Amino acid sequence: MSSISLVDCNNFFVSCERVFNPALLKKPVVVLSSNDGCIIARSAEAKALGVPMGAPLFQWRDFLERHAVVLLSSNFALYSDLSSRVMEILKEASSNIEIYSVDEAFVEIEDPVALRKKILQWTGIPVSIGVAKTKTLAKVAGHLAKQSGGICTDPLPYLENFAIEDVWGIGRRLTTHFAKRGIFTVGQLLAMDERYLNVTVKRTIWELKGIPCLPFSDEVVSKQSIMTSRTFGRPISSKQEMIEAVSSYATYGSQKLRSEERCASWLQLSIETQSETLHSAITFTRPTDYTPEIITYALSCLDRIFIETRYRKAGILLGGLVDHIQEDLFSKPLDDKKRMAQAAMDRVNAKFGKQTLSFAVTGRDQEWRVKKNLCSPAYTTNWNEILNIQI
């Protein structure tokens, strides 16, 4: 088997922001979670200041202001689009690819230097590449690559003192377990008697020894459900605002269904107060991806459980996903006019922005929406927000 390369986008969310805003280069930058609540991404400069991952913004705001750290709301439309572009380059470079996450993929390639240069040139995203004989070793090499100029092709000299907490597949629980036994490095782990270890740890050890145990997987596992869940920008108590929010989430979920060419068989609605979560579910008469139907089902669930109080969050789970609809004698198929109207709406929103056309029930002002006061424009997915360059 040829070598495996792990391609990992560096500080991905921050790097995406820097592609269209070069003024952020070499500055400490953090990206915030929904509602601008917690820190979910940091530039190398922010990490050097000691800003921790997952830190609540309100606890660190004064520190960040003192150190002139740039705060940005998460812009997932931008991150998703740039991720797709990076992955397309990898697919062109290799017929053997396994996408591991939004910013990581395992590939078999001949020239990692050329690939890294191409990704940077075509997308503006810097990547680190770790090359080794197994996936686990490639992960180690990728970790080292971030510290050594972008590429590491031989992690073996560094294994002896490499911390096991940074080994793929070990995790926090096993790290704590091994620490109690005085095991802190890969060298110490490899010296252990394998007879007393479980299969998962044995597999990790064999991979660290260069014995492949984790083959490439090019199978796409079909999702069994689609979840759309948001914390409101402010607590809401009126039923009209809840109707708008639930209808909006039902719209997002149905759009996702259609993008994946699937239909849902049932829906579960949850609305959350500060102290409890209320649930209601409904099974559809026939699987569907049609937005008005899904909104109707969602609002029928809302009518069952809504009470006058203050709500902080709502979510819609679409489940029982199927690829094809099996009609029966008693179901009424969706007529062609409705399908054409829905398809036309999707095309307009794809071209001009996802809320260019919307259903009236979702509301207009949507004051309950998630706070994104520091969000950058959707440079690549919204015609109205394309970057303007003046000469």
List the helices and strands and how they pair.
Blueprint: E1 4-9, H1 12-20, E2 29-32, E3 39-42, H2 44-48, H3 57-66, E4 70-73, H4 76-93, E5 97-101, E6 104-107, H5 112-123, E7 127-132, H6 135-145, E8 151-152, H7 171-180, H8 186-190, H9 199-208, E9 225-236, H10 239-259, E10 264-272, E11 277-288, H11 291-305, E12 311-319, H12 336-352
What percent of residues adopt helix (DSSP H or I)? Answer: 25-40%
Mean pLDDT: 88
CATH architecture field of the largest domain = 2-Layer Sandwich
Instruction: Characterize the largest beta sheet: strand count, sense, and whether it forms a barrel.
Output: 5 strands, mixed
- Record the strand order, biggest sheet: 5-6-1-7-8
Q: The CATH topology of the largest domain is what?
A: Dna Ligase, domain 1
- Strand tally: 12
How much of the sequence lies in strands comes to 15-25%
Radius of gyration: 24 Å
What is the CATH top level name of the largest domain?
A: Alpha Beta
